[in-house]
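Milestone 3.1: sequence recovery, worked example.
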């Protein structure tokens, strides 16, 4: 036993667990909490580990909850220093352009949707190229 926590720390740990549960839940449900706390699971892990470190004083508890706390803090610092990843988008083509499917349904003819600049495969309309992308699994 490294230290004997005072009995009053149980109540502080219980109060720390309330936002930890809210943050853990906010990580799977979109909303204001998720937006405000940029990485809610990490904050929840930090609060959870801190609450358990306050109430448990053995070496095993210090190793377990201390490791979680150090990991969450390190990941949080790493995420703040890391540059944002660019969002990759597919180039425009009839195979991945779902709006062409809507245009063809409104026009009523597949031939009007064909690209004249050689973008589409010869002999295929845009609708025929979109359907395998929209419905990739067999029924």
């Amino acid at each position: 036993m490294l230290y004997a926590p005072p009995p009053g720390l149980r109540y502080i740990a219980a109060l720390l667990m309330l936002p930890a549960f809210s943050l853990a839940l906010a990580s799977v449900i979109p909303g204001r909490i998720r937006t405000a706390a940029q990485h809610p699971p990490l904050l929840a892990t930090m609060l959870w580990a801190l609450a358990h470190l306050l109430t448990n004083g053995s070496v095993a508890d210090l190793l377990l909850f201390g490791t979680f706390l150090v990991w969450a803090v390190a990941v949080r610092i790493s995420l703040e220093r890391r540059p944002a990843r660019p969002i990759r988008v597919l180039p425009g083509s009839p195979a991945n352009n779902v709006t062409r499917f809507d245009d063809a349904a409104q026009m009523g003819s597949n031939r009007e949707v064909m690209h004249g600049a050689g973008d589409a495969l010869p002999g295929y309309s845009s609708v025929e190229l979109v359907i395998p992308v929209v419905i990739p699994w067999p029924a």
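The radius of gyration is 27 Å. The mean pLDDT is 75.
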